[in-house]
Amino acid sequence: MSRVLTKEKLNVVNTPVEKVDGKALVRGKPVFTDDFDLPNALTVKILRSPHAHAIIKSIDTSAAMIEGVACILTYKDVPHVIYTRAGQGYPEPSPYDTFILDKKVRYVGDAVAIIAAENENIAERAMKLIKVDYEILPAVLDYEHAQDPDAPVIHNEPEISGAYDPKHNIASHYEMEIGNVEEELKKCDYTVDEVYYTPNQSHAMMETHAAISYFDPNGRLTVITSTQVPFHARRILNRLFGVNCRVIKPRIGGGFGGKQALHVEPYVVAVTLKTGRPAKCVYTREETMTASNTRHAMRFRVRAGAMKDGTLKAIELWGLSNTGAYGEHALTVFMVAGSKTLPLYNKVKAVKFGGDVVYSNTEPAGAFRGYGAPQGMFALDSALDELARKIGMDPITFKLKNSIREGETSPIFKIMGEGREGVEQIIRSCKIEECAIEGAKIFNWYEKIKKPRIDMKNKIAHGYGVAFAMQGSSIPAIDMGGATLKMNDDGTFNLLVGATDLGTGSDTILAQIAAEVLHTTVDKITVYSSDTDITPFDKGAYASSTTYVSGNAVKSAAEKMKKEILKAASELFEKPVELLDLEEDKVVCEDGRSISFSELQTKLFYTFNQRQLEVTESFVSEVAPPPYLVSFAEVEIDMETGKVKVVDFLNYIDCGVTINPVLARGQVEGASAQGIGMALFEDHIMDRNGRLITDDFFTYKIPARGDIGKIEVRFAKSYEPTGPFGAKSVSEIGLDTPGPAIANAIYDALGIRMRRLPIRSEELFFEIRKKYG
Amino acid sequence: MLNIKEYVKPDTVQSAYEIGQVPNSLYVSGGLMVSQIKSERLERLIDLKSLDLDYIREEEEYFKIGANTKLSSLISHPSFSSLGEDFVKKSIKEIGSVQIRNMATVGGSIAFRLGWSDVITIFMTIGSQVEIYNGKFQKMDLEDFISQKIKGAIITEITVPKIEGKCIFEKFAKSNFDIATLNLGLRVSLDGNFIKEARIVAGSRPMISQRIREVEEFVTGKEIDKISDEASKLIQKVIQTGTDLRASAEYRKALSGSLLSKALRRVTQ
Amino acid sequence: MKVNIKINDRNYSIEIEPGEMLLETLRKLGYKGVKHACSTASCGACTVQIDGKPVLSCSTFTAAVDGHEVKTVEGFSNEGVLSEIQKAILEEGASQCGFCIPGLVVTAEALLKENPDPNQEEIIEYLKGNLCRCTGYESQTRAIMKAAKARRER
Predict the structure, then answer these.
(1) In this complex, which chains have at least 3 CB pairs below 8 Å with chain C?
(2) For chain A, which residues score pLDDT lower than 70?
(3) Is residue C154 packed enough to be buried (19+ CB in 10 Å), middle (13-18) or exposed (0-12)?
(4) Per CATH, which fold does B6-50 belong to?
(5) C54 has a pLDDT exceeding 90
(6) Across chain B, what does the average pLDDT equal?
(7) In chain B, which end has fewer C-beta atoms inside a 10 angstrom radius, N or C?
(8) Which of these, A20, A17, A11, A18, lies nearest to A494 by C-alpha position?
(9) Cα distance between residue B143 and residue A297, in whole Å
(10) pTM recorded for the entire structure
(11) Which CATH code of 3.90.70.10, 3.40.1390.10, 3.30.365.10, 2.60.40.1610 fits the domain covering A22-31+480-620?
């Protein structure tokens, strides 16, 4: 893999260092939550509602208190504190509309009782013996009917706060307009006005939700949990139970946003507080599928207009989002559908965005990689593709002509932030032209589109699609991350970060950043991450922020450590700091003397100006520099069955300098696969009563090996001045393009426009039959 | 974990059968299906592995396959796997994954009479007989076996004739690691360009595999490269299909037509 | 009931429940590399080898393994020396969260034993029962190709 040219001479950053936790992972070492066995631990199971909407008239646990059951907790036994499970900064932009357990259940799978027993078998037997009498209420199963006049009200609890209009099932509402879309559209030569749908999607991380809680020998409540947000989890648990605790994040078996919320933690903590005993709860796959979070399903009506010459004049995205039973991330995910898509086309005269986020009696939606951008971008990019076709312009040319450039801005950056106003920013790195133009060359776009699309003899069609995307890097003025560096007398460093590696490799890239600044190597940096009693605060792993925010925090901590080292050495050598520098694990002096880090810290420990070298720095972003991506898809469609195969998927991405090119490539490849899953495979199907029937990996098909053709990743030569060593984010953006690129490719192949994801072979087949017989 | 009382491993078919008559007992061979069972009443599993039914014997006109033979053994057996011009090898490979084929047995795959079974479609396509034990040994056509419920019987052996002609297996599934939305087996023997004899089996309709005799009769005696369209239309008309989470009945009908014409094309390719 | 099982070359004589699955037994014995991710024989994370063949331990009754030999991921790197497959997985970034990796290692070891020089298609076919949500599979295919080459050159 070729290294990217950068403005600095780099030794560690921008090299493919192996993951610091990799050896343990490939050997199957016990590093995940469920791998920890605590003596005397209780097994916790959750009784869940079989009804989509009901009131618990009575609940009788007496028959279930069989031998081996330690406790059964219902809504009467746990603190009645309203909160949001969303793991966000405080105060959270999500409404407070959830209790640990409530008298009312709002979807099939909602928690009814917590059972703690000596083992799983007893807990499951006891669960069946709990008698619950429900008053079944009418339910809203289709979010497009959540605002019907006769729709039942899902949140009528008096304690609710922060929801927009719960009496009409509206969790959040947002709207903004710049210029006058209506007027601009009238002046346009060509317009589109279409409606697009994106589905619920399950995170399907391989490790299900899991947590353990216990009192440590000194009586401190400790929670080991598979979370993306350990510090938010601690804060929220404290608020719920009024107890301080320590939250430890071990290795995480994938999260993708699904673990940016509290799921299991309140249940195990409630049991430990009640019984004094360790408690462990590991969700089944079915629970993870049905009773955690999904991607917000959205509907967008897009109106857009352009002139004959391809100048885009106006865009309107008007949406409806399904937040399910609770409003986790309701407003913020919806806003991102606009705020991280629309600035890409910053040259329009008028732009409008808005709509409602509604409650329904379905599984709560939450954060999911992309965080609204894949939903918004499917609608926007598809519509622009349609517009380009109407004008008769190549979609690459059309999208590129109207997209943002270095040195430019968009008023949307200031208007739309994270559930509130955002911050102004001038784009300082944007290589979207390289992405589009060089990408088209590598993909052979202009050669390919000359070929005939349909092979009638073999009933196979080929099509080519392109999609553009942007994302952000962190939530500016909100996200904060801290880093501590400590030097040891063996010449190594401890890097303590709150940043949360959930499989992404952030521990590794943060170690690379520290090693680069300190002129050492990654093996000399031991990383401890995400232990709320030990590491400094970090917002957690979300919003494409770790490389940018935590990376900048580590960089500035390392720079401060460098100063401390030089200062100590200058005292020792009795030479001014200006004559000293770091070089390969030592301090070198202009006069030829040198001292290794190990010798220096040893002297500082025992014999000279005694002290521990240790620094802590924090970083808050002022801007959120977007990465950019242009993706090219080639699809092969079996016209006899409607089956679509993505045979080639090329990503050309500007994510600034890659701290670790191999890990960065993996982020893009993985996001593409999840996006292909969302576009073609993953389907939430409910029965008439609102029960999800695609509730396991047998029925909910994430793409398997062989379902995906070639995924390729190329990095643009880019440098973000505000990022650590020129880096921007890379983890989320890859999910924004597969949906539109595939739909555009299908249109290119067959002239059939699919405006609803997932694109089911069945639906496409009948469209093909209609058109081609 | 299944909450059962005992796991027994009898070493004769007779004793296995006897234990099988005790209520709340279930036979287990590969274990794949049984482990998914959430029956509260189940008390006893009867492991058939000690019955010595893991073999593929080649005789002059037949292959005899022990019921406990793993699907992976079918692929690795040199002569059986090449039956029907590599039909066995190619079709069995479309089932599950390496792990699943190392676990699932021929007998187990048939015994559960699952609608989506590829194994049943494949063995019906090559024309198989099932030997069962239910107090006595008896043989019947696989097609008859799946259409009737014989309580407590143990499948002991499958007999497959050394058929002539070419067989094709077509499977449509959403993912390449997935059960079929519809599967179809075709066997034809040709006389020049003319179809001398044909067998067409469709499964995962989502109901259990079935021979589509009207279409078999229709194509017999006709030129293979000329009947694809008409045969495809006919099968869509006569096949019975249903709706489930994977597809609608209507789509399955359409798929049957598509898979049949694909199969017919592949015969001559 | 009592069973005798050899696990990673060590003999065990253990008391089990009649309905116990091999996955549960192995994890109880401390082989935590065997992962529980789906319960429906759909993901491959629990893959172990029985008598050299990859199977799903979530759907294998421990009672049925009496007298057989089991190998888990823990049995494929001696004293911390990584196998070629494990090394290649690290080099190619083919392990992100790492939860599917033990199952992948166990399956890929069997693949390379059966077929020391697999092409891309054969790798994908052999490993298709091992789901991964992080990588999009590309890096894993590259890793197995690389490991196969390293093994052939050993």
Answers:
(1) A, B
(2) 1-8
(3) exposed
(4) 3.30.43
(5) yes
(6) 95
(7) C
(8) A20
(9) 45
(10) 0.97
(11) 3.30.365.10
